[in-house]
Amino acid sequence: xxxxxxxxxxxxxxxxxxxxxxxxxxxxxxxxxxxxxxxxxxxxxxxxxxxxxxxxxxxxxxxxxxxxxxxxxxxxxxxxxxxxxxxxxxxxxxxxxxxxxxxxxxxxxxxxxxxxxxxxxxxxxxxxxxxxxxxxxxxxxxxxxxxxxxxxxxxxxxxxxxxxxxxxxxxxxxxxxxxxxxxxxxxxxxxxxxxxxxxxxxxxxxxxxxxxxxxxxxxxxxxxxxxxxxxxxxxxxxxxxxxxxxxxxxxxxxxxxxxxxxxxxxxxxxxxxxxxxxxxxxxxxxxxxxxxxxxxxxxxxxxxxxxxxxxxxxxxxxxxxxxxxxxxxxxxxxxxxxxxxxxxxxxxxxxxxxxxxxxxxxxxxxxxxxxxxxxxxxxxxxxxxxxxxxxxxxxxxxxxxxxxxxxxxxxxxxxxxxxxxxxxxxxxxxxxxxxxxxxxxxxxxxxxx
Length: 449
Hints:
alpha/beta; 12 strands
């Protein structure tokens, strides 16, 4: 009997220690601000306040839509509820919460196309982090229900993801251990932090600003991409149907929007981009839901600027201002019953509007004793013809040396005299241009003579 009692006490003691260690690890390792915690914290500060409209979606949403600009144009009061890698399921959770708490009138759903496809519908870590953040300050009963919805989800139940849910630091960890002391001070309120490029702090209405600007000549390339409706996820499409039905049943006006991205991202799909656009237009039309792809908006509505992006998927603060201005007008005029379809390009008109080279890609392949083969392709519109020039320098040298002058050919071969590491650069410009180049890109190759 004593042995059994001792064992029970040992187990209880072990569990207690494990709980304490888990709490300490969670405090030390989880960041003071994450996309989900900031979203829910800012949302909760508006308890009792009027919120007419919310925005849901991934980082393209919370980095792209400024509620202050939207409110000024539409006359509504709104909140950005986008979070990092927000699944369609979590978008639905956010909509339900706002409908219950604020009886919202409108929802703008910034759709991330990736989450439509089989195999990319949902990711455990951001979903778990979403639930943690939603649970902060909630009643015990609601926290248990929310946690159970994740742990017993058929996608995760019985797998490591369901166990990891009980250890928040496994799902939401500070990526840079050296910043742990600062993280502790931030959580204790010992330092004053302002929103910047290094954190996820947002405005009171949930908007996150970034002032970085993409360098089209040096960032990793946007590769050619494909899309096929046969690869769509049934789970994702069913969730989209549920969102449409829920909003309709509550009298909530739903608008689905494709966020703006650099032109090369659109062109990388070729004709597949417009097939996807047509498919979604028809899909949402069945539920009387308007769908607008801002990448196809013309200059009368959306003043696109190549400097308005921080990377291949997201706007910076300048791009967000232009996006929000355009979206605000779109929402306002649509609510007033105006026909806004004329603001959007057809496929041919869109391609004709890209009258420049957006980026140039480069592929290199070194073959022993046969030289370094370089192949380039640029992204541009239908009215453009490109020409390419190739240059080389040995790694460590300061200057590039031209080994093939401008011409329409997209390939060239460089024959090094000695083995070593070389950098191949391609320059691209529109035929007829007198500029040294419009875009360039560099790749490295190791060569054996």
